[in-house]
Specification:
263 residues; alpha/beta; eight-stranded parallel beta sheet; 7 helices; 30% helix; 9% strand; globular
Length: 263
Amino acid sequence: MVQGVRVLVERGRLVHLHIEHSELNLQGAIQIAKGLQKPACCLQTLNISRNALGDVGVAPIIHALGSDNVVLHSLDLSENELTSETGALLARVLDGNDTLTTLVLEHNRLGDEGVAALAAMLESELCRVRFLDLSRNKLMDRGALALAKALKTNLALTTLKLSRNKITDKGGAALGKAFRASTSLKTLDLRWNDMTADGKGGEGRRPSLDGAMPGQKRKGSVEGRNPSVGGSQGRKPSVGGRKPSVEAGAVQGRKPSIAGLLT
């Protein structure tokens, strides 16, 4: 099956390819990577989420992104048991990539180290990523502070999803400040973290009900409420190249989340 997919990819017949939750293995990933690098390839969207590929399994595809022939706009690597090693590899390869605009890494184990590497990538003038999902990645304040620093200079990112991590008031405050100062960021998702309503708590305290930092001016969309329905888990972004929604929790074909919306 995968050999057939490679033929379709390299001959320019596929634009969108979804192989999520399909027991894709290393050999299959290698075949896809080879197809991506063929001159005739026109694949723009690749979803290989929920395959438990690990760092080694996704490496061939990430390395392929460094090829001049690759025109991929959207890559979904969610739920693949990825660690900081993949975060560092993505940062190195994407530093020279000017086509990828949507990167989904939800439900992995990148941690602060992997996220810090991606934050450094966001500081590059060549970075074109507009939608970045780092939800459920064991992210804490160190990674949040690195992202906040990157947002000061990044001019491309419009949506940043950080729900279901371990960010406390310290990291949340830094992100909130960076959000207010950013000229491009429109949606910041901080739901289900360890921030508090009064901004004086820490890990383990009850999260804020509205996600706003004390004294925060309202701008764009900040999602910080623990919703009863409509959480971010399992959501996917719209196809690469489409304009991200500025409504809280809005996803292609779905109603906006009821999570706190500040406008």
